[in-house]
Design goal:
2 copies of one chain form a homodimer. By secondary structure, the first copy, chain A, is an alpha/beta fold. Helix content of chain A is about 45%, strand content about 15%. A 6-stranded parallel sheet of chain A has the order 2-1-3-4-5-11, with helices on both faces. A 4-stranded parallel sheet of chain A has the order 7-6-8-9, with helices on both faces. The structure holds a DNA duplex.
Amino acid sequence: MDSPKEVTIYDIAKKLDVSPSTVSRALKDDPTVSKNTKKKVFETAARMGYRSNQFARNLRQQQSLTIGVIVSELNNPFITSVLSGIEKIAGEAGYGIIITDSSQSAKKEAANAQNLFQRRVDGIIASLAPDTKDLAHFKPFVTKGIPVIFLDRVEHMAESTSVVINNVMCGYVATKHLIEQGCRRIAHVTSALQHNIYAQRYKGYRDALEENKIPFDESLLVIMEEAEEAGEAAAKKIMRLQPMPDGVFVTGDFAAAVCIRTFQDNGVRVPEDMAVVGFNNEVIGRLIKPTLTTINYPGKEMGEAAARNLVNHLKGLGNIGSISTLTIRADLIVRQSSLKTG
Amino acid sequence: MDSPKEVTIYDIAKKLDVSPSTVSRALKDDPTVSKNTKKKVFETAARMGYRSNQFARNLRQQQSLTIGVIVSELNNPFITSVLSGIEKIAGEAGYGIIITDSSQSAKKEAANAQNLFQRRVDGIIASLAPDTKDLAHFKPFVTKGIPVIFLDRVEHMAESTSVVINNVMCGYVATKHLIEQGCRRIAHVTSALQHNIYAQRYKGYRDALEENKIPFDESLLVIMEEAEEAGEAAAKKIMRLQPMPDGVFVTGDFAAAVCIRTFQDNGVRVPEDMAVVGFNNEVIGRLIKPTLTTINYPGKEMGEAAARNLVNHLKGLGNIGSISTLTIRADLIVRQSSLKTG
DNA sequence: GTGAAAGCGCTAACAA
DNA sequence: TTGTTAGCGCTTTCAC
């Protein structure tokens, strides 16, 4: 099955009676090689079925033309769009991406980082696992001068860049929109506030309330588990509050959809009795009834920004190394679920 | 930024006053090296911050410990679960995966294949683009004895293995279920039948009808575009049929959900007036009302099967090379949308 | 149980 | 414009 032998630049050189260096240069389209020689080299290379040996190239240049990516979870539409953004930009720049999945575990994340380090990736893009606190596993990269870019779920580390959305602003905008719709008692359904993205959205929510002199009531803050049934429990809890809230800001479209359905099942009309704003702009929001007002979480753009930043850095373009945070624009998408007025 | 220098086995050898070969052997836990030397080597390696150089190793062994993956589209829950299955098995076996996205284009797919070939991946797992007919871009792999595994959307090629579900059977089971629910006029909403997976599901649909002596009516076959609005158009077309069908088998959950909503908006009750069965078991099916009966498309299992097969092949285990098709079990998941009885 | 030496295929500094 | 040469760091025969 294995072909007899791989063709090397030496074979080409011998056939053309030039030196291997000339062949090497010709193949990289080096301007110091004559047009004529180049043409001959390309032709014979093609004819002999030559393919350049990345291994030798990697060894020689000490670079892999590969970017390592660590995601917390592959099964997630947001992550997927991030990946497609990364893949696009990296691919265009000639980089491949090695993707690893930490399955939401800081431990596996560390193992993945270690693995990518061994594989000598040229750079890293990572979306941290929920329970990652200690960034020690990224230290080796920093030490070796390998750029690390954090995305979405970030922690701060010297010498690294972060790509995020302005979660405070998003929380603020979502809440303010509800207030503008006439809501005065707004619940907030979210995940554990230890994670900074949720803490920030919560801050935005609080800011909007404060700015509008709406008192905050501790019972309006509903923390849910990551489980699938969590949305239902949250909705029930909200309906039991006295007086019942007239708006909810939920930090996830799926959970928001489940809430809406639970409200409806219990005779609470959306948006008339309860206005709802979600988060992420997932497909589901366009399908449910009423359609879901949400924050567009621009995964693809974030992935592209991260990859572009990394690639530029690797190619030594611009003063990119000095950027510490890249904030991508995220907008409110208004649909039916929040429109009490017209 | 760059650290002063990489530690090599030569550095370790010098420090311990042994030869590089001994260090190399010790590091691979070669039995011919004495326990004592091994211990010393491991210790010094750790102390000096040694990391083995994959590039040199790759060059020497002519293998990359990397599997190339080509998907037709990253933004897709099915593909994502496939990837998570591949990543899991490959990772456990010490292989990394390089993922490329063909964006549904045969041309980009060919470019990706070419790219992965240049990168000298040890094996390939590919889910073909919808318009791929010509498999020439995989020939180089076959020629070099690099295993190629096709998944889900497959075409036949000598010397390659395919991982699929039994689409005919799935179409049959879905349709038969509708018949058992009392449906006698069953529409089939699907995508272009040029793609064998759709053609096969259609065949299963026809088989079930025939087996139950239900005449087939050409107008019941509704081909939809890939666009998002396609589901709505399909539903409207079905409602216009005379007499109106009493069941639909839709080859996609999202489209099925859109159909259901369109039916409901037009006063057609599901499942009472119209029983619906989807395909893929996407999250959305558990959320809509009524919940959606569907075929569970076991992406993760398929990915795992493909990766396991490939890894075993690469490691020279078993007579795996001889398997040409691996069919993964896919089941009907009965929920509310199809239950006219009970 | 260990060492010497050759070479995987490529690139780049230097020389011509 | 082209050639010479010396490695990149590792593995692996073969010899001791």
